Amino acid sequence: MRARKLLITVPALAMLAFAIVAYAQPPSGIVHPPNQESKTPLELGSELFAANCASCHGIDGRGVSPSIPVHGAGDIEGAGPDLTSAGAQAADFYLRTGRMPISHPGEEPERQRPFFSEREIGALTRYVASLGQGPPIPQPQPSSGNVSRGMELFTEHCAGCHQIVGEGGYVTNARVPVLQHASATQIAEAVRIGPYLMPSFPHSQINDRQLNSIIAYIETTKHPDDRGGLGIGHIGPVPEGIVAWLVAAIVLVGVCVLIGERARA
Amino acid sequence: MRVIRFLKGLLWLLIRLPKILYAGLLGLFGWLRAPRRERIVPERETTARAEWTVIVLLFAAAAAGLAFFVFYVVDIPSSTQFLGLALGVCLALIAAALVVAAKKLIPTEHLEESYPGEAREDEEQLLQVIHETPSGLTRRRLIASAGAAAGGALGLSLVAPAASLGPFLDTESLYATPWRAGRRLVDDRERPYLADEIVTGTFYTAYPQGADPEQLGSPIVVVRLDPSQLQLPEGRADWAPDGILAYSKICTHAGCAIGLYRNPLFPQAESKPALVCPCHYSTFDPAEGGTVIFGPAGRNLPQLPLEIDPQGGLRAAGSFSGPVGPSFWGVRTRGPSSS
Questions:
Q1: CA-CA-CA-CA torsion for B37, B40, B42, B47, nearest 10 degrees?
Q2: What does B257-270 look like in DSSP terms, one character per residue?
Q3: What average pLDDT does range B287-309 have in this prediction?
Q4: Helix (H) or strand (E) holding A170
Q5: Three-state SS at B148
Q6: Crossing angle, helix A41-52 and helix A118-130, to 10 degrees?
Q7: Which of A80, A106, A194 comes nearest B263 by C-beta?
Q8: Separation in Å, CA of B219 to nearest CA in chain A
Q9: Between chains, do B264 and A80 touch, taking CB under 8 Å as contact?
């Protein structure tokens, strides 16, 4: 009986350990070309692109349609958007926030430690920008923005998904990122790109002055002064209600002890 | 004739019912008290002060309950705070009255006795203790009416907010919308929208020109999709000129504003565009006439037919495809009415 239990438990544990290790792995096969110092940024960028990006974005950066499957590194079926109009803006955003590369097409790109060094990110960004006439890296000036106007605009355009103090949340089929880790440049990039399922906001809808105000507001949400007391994660009325109930329950027990009488044995 | 006589009899009975009940209670009380023996529990002195405390607390609770009703009926600024305060004070005062009554007015006697062996004698003794325990009440009726007042006021304050559930019989106002053919789409600063300004990948909020933007039937979301991807229901082929679509911004589930637009960067491998309500994640497909693809909403999002005027401005070409906002009794029976 005991032996049989062992027979089941040991392989199960081994599989679990393997699964955890496999899950925790970053996308496999990130290639860092040698002799980087001796190459021009564009050369290094093209080598990095060919090794790490081309299986999904195509060898010429024109994208891969899922209807024409391409088998890339790790025999993954590649599929990805055209990058010829993405420009330095998108490359800088996705690489600097660790959102690219992803292991499977269609997977939600999520913020993590960048996979490439500063030199490599610069080179890849240069290379992607050279593919076409894409927008450059934006240079927002949040210090010139108006925080209260920013809050109005944030409420109108962003808070539905990102929550009013930028703590993120959910939309169907996607997790909405927290904004506290994003730099001013990254926010400006994301607003124009519309990564994954986020809408993209053109200049006609949010102009650069308004964008500065929005970023100024997000910067203030990074250091809230919590006038009401504890912030409780700033994620809205549910945790606040739970805390209120916990406090109320203790108070109610206290009142019961005060007004009641202990039954005599 | 017989019916009238029967009704007369019933009326007679009803009028005298309190007296009959009272007489019955008196009889029962007298029967219970009939055997007179030597007292076990000493006579207790009346507790006038505690009684008055209870009476005052109960009437104060009644006043607080009535205050809730007044705050509810009279529209004042920050009324929710006052409503909460009034209800809280009412409940706290009732609780205080009950505490005082339990501590001072309800008699409590302790029987210091181990498990009774011979039941009969002890039982009689126990009954006698219960009978003799003084109630000590001298203002029974006043306390009862104070209790009734507090209970009535509390009940009133709990039932009154049901009036906020909406018009019960007259649902006409729920069908009303300011949209009708020819009405311009404007933004929140009354600036008319041009068709060329509406680009794919984002969403816009629009209102009917010159109408109350606060009305439930006013706000709409406008998106532009690739016309080749549209699969609108039958009869709506010309509702989306150049792929520009308009839907009510009010979710058909609980009436929240549709504030989320899901727009894939790489549609070939990601979820399709959708309008999402942030309250309970009802998700509507703008390409297929606002059908519910996820979440608790029970009806499709009402679509507004659009047209582009010769100057390039966006105008409504009619009214919504269905009533706007959360469902109500009879919501599926007819379409909206232009107000």
A1: -90
A2: B--EEE--SSTTTS
A3: 94
A4: strand A169-171
A5: helix
A6: 90
A7: A194
A8: 13
A9: no
**Cα B143 versus chain centre, distance:** 32
Chain B residues touching chain A at CB-CB below 8 Å: 99, 102-103, 110, 197, 199, 201-205, 259-266, 268-271, 274, 276, 278, 281, 283, 294-295
| Torsion over CA: A173, A175, A179, A181 (sign) | negative
Number of other CB atoms surrounding residue A223 within 10 Å: 8
Mean pLDDT of B163-182: 83
Provide the pLDDT confidence category of residue A116 given band limits of 50, 70 and 90: very high
**Cα–Cα distance for residue pair A97/A118, rounded to 1 Å:** 12
- Cα A154 to Cα B250: distance, rounded to the nearest angstrom: 20
**Interface test mutation site (partner A, options B98, B197, B205, B261, max chain A beta carbons within 10 A):** B261
Is residue A21's pLDDT more than 70? no
Give the one of B269, B278, B295 whose C-beta lies nearest to A79's C-beta.
B269
Confidence of residue A60 (pLDDT cuts 50, 70, 90): confident
Judged by CB atoms closer than 8 Å, whether chains meet at B266 and A80 is answered as: yes
Mean pLDDT of chain A: 85
Cβ neighbours of residue A202 under 8 Å, at least 6 residues apart?
A192, B199, B201, B202
For residue B177, the tally of other CB atoms under 10 A from its CB is: 27
Please report which confidence band the pLDDT of residue A125 belongs to, taking 50, 70 and 90 as the band edges.
Answer: very high
β B176-177/B337-338 pair status: parallel
| Residue A265 pLDDT > 60 | no
- Chain-centroid distance of CA A175 in Å reads 9
Cis peptide before A101 (omega within 30 of 0): yes
In this predicted complex, what is the ipTM? 0.77
The first and second tokens of residue A198, run together, are 């986020």
Which segments of chain B are extended strands (E)? 176-177, 185-186, 203-208, 220-224, 244-248, 260-262, 274-276, 283-285, 291-294, 303-304, 306-308, 314-316, 337-338
Question: Is the pTM for the entire model greater than 0.90?
Answer: no
Which of A235, A249, A188 has the alpha carbon at shortest distance from A214?
A: A188
Query: For the residues of B66-79, what is the DSSP string, one character each?
Result: HHHHHHHHS--TTH
Q: How far apart are CA A15 and CA A3, in angstroms?
A: 19
CB contact under 8 A, A79 and B201: no
Q: For residue range B114-158, list pLDDT tens digits in order.
A: 665 556 677 777 777 777 666 656 678 888 899 999 999 999 999
- Cβ contact, residue pair B281, A264, below 8 Å: no
Handedness of CA A233, A238, A240, A245 (dihedral sign): negative
Mean of the pLDDT values across residues A18-37?
69
What would the two tokens of residue B241 be? 């000129």
Q: Which of A193, A197, A201 sits opposite B270 (nearest CB)?
A: A197
Q: Which residue of B has its CA nearest to A258?
A: B99
